[in-house]
Design goal:
- It is a single chain.
- This protein is an alpha/beta fold.
- It is globular and about 55 Å long.
- It is built from 13 helices and twelve strands.
- The strands form two sheets. The chain has a ten-stranded mixed beta sheet with strand order 3-2-4-7-1-8-12-11-9-10. A two-stranded antiparallel ribbon has the order 5-6.
- It has a domain of 126 residues: Peroxisomal Thiolase, Chain A, domain 1 (3-Layer(aba) Sandwich), CATH 3.40.47.10.
Length: 369
């Protein structure tokens, strides 16, 4: 691939009650253009990531609304793939560039989730499950089933789950855009309110508002981060259709595709932004991505092998748990954060991993200098 990141931006993530969805889109668009030192007219097309504005705000047709932020109204497409919407929008943009149709495009993702009750949000998010067979299910409950299977097979401990949250809150302290800037302890996670056994409140990523944008180009540039490769894979939406409940097949397949596409070996990867919607999700991911063997993800996290200074830095942004999870923005935020991380010299090669639903969709991107 010959695609470079010309610029990127992320708004603050959090409970932004004073902000509208369109104001978040507008902030991310303007900041990314400023970062790239481009004019709005330089953007030939826009790819918009959002999961549920139709449910949260009765607002559809987001591609047209975001196109209005540019004076020349560029072609615009909205992409929805549950919590993987941002990464799928990235792939749509990359394929459009590789086709030769465009040379410079923008990907922007946003979600406004905090203006409705927690019960309404739970109902809206559950639409990413199989509503015909997993009737009444919630994502804490679905991931709790995955956690119980992992615990039964590999004796994963409560302390190991808690260590994921502790690490990601610690990493978020250095991210000015993160929703949380507060250390938490293993004891606090372990004693937090039970949500769906064994998952507790501090095992869960928060409801968030926020946006992120990335400008991609096939035009020759120097000194920019390059997208080296990507992979996308699917699996059964319902857990009942899965071949395993201790591994996400889609993550494994997407990782294999991304490694082959990029020509990068797994041991060259120095950092990874991982989809830690729940603490068990990060443990599953670092095993499925091949950083650790089956059953080794929990011990590796507790032993701080995934913390800055360890074998590989997992979620230096704070991840979904510490940084926040405005679902349409998350996949784009991962790329935007890693772009800055690489340009600062904190890593030469890094990976982004984004998941939709309980593992039905998985996307992996590999970036490097």
């Amino acid at each position: 691939m010959n695609i470079h990141i010309l610029g990127s931006a992320t708004t603050s993530f959090g409970e932004l009650w004073e902000r509208s969805l369109m104001s978040l889109f507008a902030e991310a668009v303007e900041a990314a253009l400023n970062d790239a030192k481009l004019e709005p007219a330089d953007i030939e097309a826009a790819f918009i990531a959002n999961k549920a504005a139709g449910s949260y705000e009765n607002q559809h047709h987001l591609n047209a609304l975001v196109s209005q932020l540019f004076p020349h109204f560029p072609p615009s497409v909205r992409v929805e793939g549950a919590c993987a919407s941002g990464s799928l929008a990235m792939i749509a943009a990359e394929l459009a560039l590789l086709s030769g149709r465009y040379k410079t495009v923008m990907v922007v993702g946003a979600e406004k989730m905090t203006d409705v009750s927690s019960q309404e949000t739970t109902t809206i998010l559950s639409g990413a499950a199989d509503t015909s067979t997993e009737v009444g299910s919630t994502f804490p409950a679905l991931y709790a089933l995955l956690a119980k299977s992992h615990i039964k097979s590999y004796h994963t401990t409560r302390e190991q789950l808690s260590a994921v949250a502790v690490k990601n809150h610690h990493h978020a302290l250095s991210n000015p855009r993160a929703q949380f800037h507060k250390e938490i302890s293993l004891e606090q996670v372990t004693k937090s309110q039970l949500i769906s056994d064994p998952l507790r409140l501090l095992d869960c990523s928060p409801v968030s508002d926020g946006a992120a944008a990335v400008i991609l180009s096939t035009q020759p540039v120097k000194g920019k981060t390059k997208l080296l490769g990507f992979g996308q894979a699917q699996d059964s939406v319902s857990l009942a259709g899965r071949s395993s409940l201790t591994s996400l097949r889609a993550t494994k397949v997407a990782m294999d595709q991304a490694l082959k596409d990029s020509g990068v070996s797994r041991d060259q990867l120095q950092a990874a932004e991982i989809h830690d919607c729940f603490t068990i999700a990060e443990i599953l991911a670092i095993e499925d991505l091949g950083f650790f063997g089956p059953g080794e993800g929990g011990p590796a996290t507790l032993e701080q092998r995934t913390t800055i200074g360890g074998k590989i830095v997992i979620n230096p942004s704070g991840g979904l748990k510490g940084c926040g999870h405005p679902v349409g923005a998350t996949g784009v935020k991962q790329i935007a954060f890693l772009n800055d991380y690489i340009l600062r010299g904190d890593a030469n090669v890094a990976l982004a991993h984004n998941v939709g639903g309980s593992g039905a969709t998985a996307v992996v991107h590999i970036l490097g200098k």
